[in-house]
Amino acid sequence: MKKWASLALTCMLVMSFLAGCSGKNEPAKEEAASSGEKKTEAADEVTKFSISLRTLNFGYVEKSPDINADKWVKRVEDLTKTDMDIRLVPHKEYEQKMVQMFATNDIPDVVQGQGGTTGKEMAGSVEAGVFMPLDDLLKEYGPNLLKKIPKEAWNRMSYQGKIYGIPEWLGNPSRRATWIRKDLLDQTGLPVPKTVDEYLNVLRAFKKLGVENPYMGRQDFKYADTFFGSYDVFPYLSQFEEADGQVQPKFMDSENMMKALSTYKTMFDEGLINKEFATINPTTFKNTILAGKAGIWTMNANELIQWQTQLQDTVKDAKLEIIPSPVGPDGKGGYYLYGDVARSYFINAKYKHPEKIIQFFDWMVSDEAEQFFTYGVEGENFTKEGDKINYKQPTDAQAVDEERYRQAFLWMVQDTTYNKGSLSLTEEGKSLMSVFDNTLANEGRDGIEFDPRLEALKKNPDIAPLSDTPPPLLITHMVKMVYGQEPIDNWPKVIEEWKSKGGSDVLKEANERYQSKEGVFLPRK
Amino acid sequence: MKRKTNKDNGIWRLIWKYKALYLISIPSILYFLIFKYIPLGGSIIAFQDYNIFKGFSGSDWVGFAHFAEMFKHYDFLRILNNTVLIGLYDLIFSFPAPIILAILLNELRLVMFKRVIQTVVYMPHFLSWVVIAGMSVAILSPTTGVLNQLLVLFGIDPLYFLGDNSYIRGVLVGSGIWRDTGYGTILYLAALAGINPELYEAAQIDGANRWKQTLRITLPALLPTIMILFLLHIGKFLDFGFERVWVFLNALNTENGEILDTYIYRAGLLSQQYGYTTAVGLFKSVVGLVLVMMGNLFSRKTTGESLY
Domain named ABC transmembrane type-1: which ranges (chain B) (predicted)? Predict the structure, then answer.
């Protein structure tokens, strides 16, 4: 028995060693084969390159067994005479995986960033010279890119005066919106609210109607920050302002901050916001809303049609609408503005034919590309009558997934505000476009932003805000104040605490940078 | 030549004698070398201003600056305090739990019943912390949670367990007990199965009741296992685990809930200060090592059981 077991074990070991060895041999063989291929390909002029793409949580991408064998990828390759080797980066661990990629020096020919040259996910790679400057190449091979992409977006892709990446830009950076259950509002008989007080009245009326969460709260005020916008005190990364000749974060405007906090406290005390909002996570947030238990909340406007459909599954008469956000004392309101760049593409400095990559992206902004990504392939997904395009929008979940993947994932360089071609096909789509152009374009809060990030902010994560979350130190106090565990009058003390824990250095550095105008982006609105 | 070394050198002869054992231990030796000992060298970046593009040969040396910064940090004492307290609670409450459960299970005479109970108590171990946190939020919720409704039955006001600094440590340790106690009984049950039944028979004849038998036979028989597991537990004293804490933290309970691991995550991965966080991690490991050595010494002196 013993002998038999040890024999079996030894055999297994030997086999696993052999397997290991043969495994090692394979890539070598492949390489040899691919180098052979390269020679023949040079004749056909197919450009081969590897590219890293974030999965963006797209079901179609994450479920795909092999994205490189996907039919739409193949079609893009045919149209552009390329052969892409797509390396997917998981959405959730994007930053970590990117840093890992740089640390192991396994960098693809084209790397996708999430906007900006010095973001955290880039891990200092642009400064380290991993990617090539593109100005001359763009002039020669990317005329359409230069023409179509706005200057603000290019500015974001510049480092020390040189362009390092090609941006997928956002024409309208005001994306988040105030949503309301219009059917409930009609029941109350109240008009569409405008000011903070009118909003509170509507919330109270919702409460009377028996709505469980008149205003839908969420952990850390994420997507629940409507009233900080009314008072223009978002404690976020891009929200610095000039006050008395000094640059400072907007939350240092104590007067308005305390007003905003009082608004939330009122809502908390009167039960207009869930008493447990400090522990409500994104999933609970969405499920509660889709179960018809919320009246007003914040979400990205582009999700409107999808949520409307899902909500109607549970509440038949539900009607969602996006309304102008509550305005504060200065007559303005809205949410923080997104950056001008949604995704961006950097070319590895070691790549031999960067001009081909530029041409590839230049094609992305062509009319041919727009038609392809929006409607798909003629004869298969749409038909043409003269100039008119007959495109049937998919209805079943799987096909919707596929359409979204084609329009938003594969179409790498475009204005991602909304897909015009597809929205203009339906009434709902048209009204959504008008929400973007008429409601959202007129609101939103922007501030002075520093890119690259201030060094002093890197030192202490407790005092550093993220793009849409306040610094942890502030969140703690903000939540406690709303819960009544700390008086709101304490806010000036909170600011002092923030300063003493490293904030003073932040202020000092911000002002120095502001004076020297290095990497400073001024408010767009 | 070869024969001569074999004869001269005791070690080689020993190896030759047990060659099969040595052969099958090669993979695990390689595993430890490659995945445990070589990465240990990476701790070097605790003394550097580490830049991933320069690597540790090109990054600047900063000596003990990161350690100094750590001890100077205004929150360091609070976070260390949390870590030690939570670790201590874990030691006091979680560690004995599987022992007690195993002894209780051992007293069950109906085999089928025992099997079913075992399976049920093992189960939670296979849930991820994210799932457990989700369940806890539901169970502990002041308005809809089961636990609070129970409290209301007894006339106690509902408590916002996850939104209060004073409960978070209890929730953290408690959820750990719920998750891992059953699984932790495996080793103890195995040890219990090894006790010679004749001992119990003899004790019964001498007139010992169940409780006396447990005290005089079961516990002493378990002691070596308990001691070894205790020492292993001590080694991980500051290692409460990142995920299980991270999923429970929110703005209202960070003050008492934040531990070194979650701080390392925030400062290291979210702010990309690799050198600094490696220093914090190294500090944690050194404390763990010292604790294990002390515990081992103590255990050898008192019970004669030890890890090495």
Answer: 80-295
pLDDT, one tens digit per residue, over A126-137 is: 999 999 999 999
The residue to which tokens 């238990």 are assigned: A293
| ipTM of the modeled complex | 0.78
Quick one: closest CA in B to A484, which residue?
Answer: B252
Facing residue for B163 by CB, picked from A6, A123, A278:
A278
Phi/psi of residue A158, nearest 5 degrees: -100, 145
Q: Do A275 and B143 touch (CB under 8 A)?
A: yes
Can you tell me the mean pLDDT for B288-307?
Answer: 86
**Rounded to 5 degrees, what are φ and ψ at A333?**
-165, -165
Mutant choice from B21, B30, B53, B270 vs A, greatest count of A C-beta within 10 A: B53
What was the pLDDT predicted at B7? 53
pTM across the whole model: 0.82
Q: Could A275 and B254 be called an inter-chain contact, meaning their C-beta atoms sit closer than 8 Å?
A: no
pLDDT category at A370 given cuts 50, 70, 90 is: very high
Tell me the pLDDT of chain A averaged across its residues. 89
Determine the Cα–Cα distance for residues A229 and A446; give it in Å rounded to an integer.
Answer: 10
Q: Evaluate if residue A180 carries a pLDDT over 90.
A: yes
CA distance A279 to chain B (A): 7
Beta-carbon separation of B266 and A123 below 8 A? no
Q: How many CB atoms lie within 10 A of CB A57?
A: 10
Q: What is the DSSP string of A198-210?
A: HHHHHHHHHHHHT
Answer yes or no: is pLDDT of A5 > 80.
no
Beta-carbon contacts of residue A478 (< 8 Å; ≥ 6 apart)? A221, A235, A261, A470, B251
- Is residue A456 within 8 Å of residue A511, measured between CB atoms? no
Q: Do B53 and A476 touch (CB under 8 A)?
A: no
Instruction: Give tens-digit pLDDT for A167-179.
Output: 999 999 999 999 9
d(CA A168, CA B260): 39
Show the beta-strand stretches assigned E in A90-157: 110-113
Position A82, amino acid = T
Alpha-carbon distance A511 to A40, whole Å?
58
**A-chain residues within 8 Å CB-CB of B269?**
95-96
Residues 6+ positions from A210 with CB-CB distance below 8 Å: none
Structural Rg of chain B based on CA atoms? 25
- pLDDT at position A44, please? 59
Say if residue A442's pLDDT is above 90: yes
Beta bridge partner(s), residue A390 = A383
Residues in Cβ contact with A303 at an 8 Å cutoff, skipping those fewer than 6 apart: none
Contacts of A125 in chain B (CB under 8 A): 53
* Chain A residues within 8 A of B51 when measuring between CB atoms: 124, 128
Distance CA B122, CA B99 (A): 14
Write out chain B residues lying below 8 Å of A485, CB-based. Answer: 252
pLDDT for A18 beyond 90: no
Q: Who wins on pLDDT, A382 or B4?
A: A382
What single letter denotes the amino acid at residue B148?
N
Q: Answer whether residue A392 shows pLDDT above 90.
A: no
3-state secondary structure of A378: strand
Largest CA distance in chain B: 87
